[in-house]
Amino acid sequence: MNWAMLTAIGQLATVFVGVPSIIYFAIQLREQNRERRQAAVNALTQQWGDLTRALHEDAEFTALFLRGVQSFHGLDAISKLRFSAFQNRFFKNFEGMYYSRREGILNPELWEEIQRTMSDFLAYNGVREWWETRKHWHADVFVRVVEAIIARDQKPTAYSTYDLQQVIRPEDD
Fold this sequence. Notes:
Layout: H1 3-57, H2 59-70, H3 77-102, H4 108-122, H5 125-134, H6 140-151
Helix pairs in contact: 1-2, 1-3, 2-3, 2-5, 3-4
């Protein structure tokens, strides 16, 4: 056997060992990316649940929220602060989801679901009034996303089956 033949056998052995190793590595990398995306979606879902807990565990805050979506400017100072703190967390959550979509963590279907949810909230005057007072707290790129949703000027329907006139106001207690 000469050196050329040994070199050829060595190269062939490298191909038989190296190519499967590269394929295995690619499969492992893809699986890790899938797991990472799923973990991120699970974290966002957990954050969303934690955020909306205030709406189903605190009837007083729920009433304040329903008044606030109708008119942020109509709220008293303390109610404005509470509504604003909630909305800020809400929209920071949306903003985090936007960046997750931009980074490819959220798939397009999930982002479309989030946009529909944002559209429902942003259809209400009170949420739009609040947004005008706090949009400067958000990144310009996310502000443009929200402004584009507002520009659609959708009719508020998320709470259209609720009789919002029956929401108890603090002075009615």
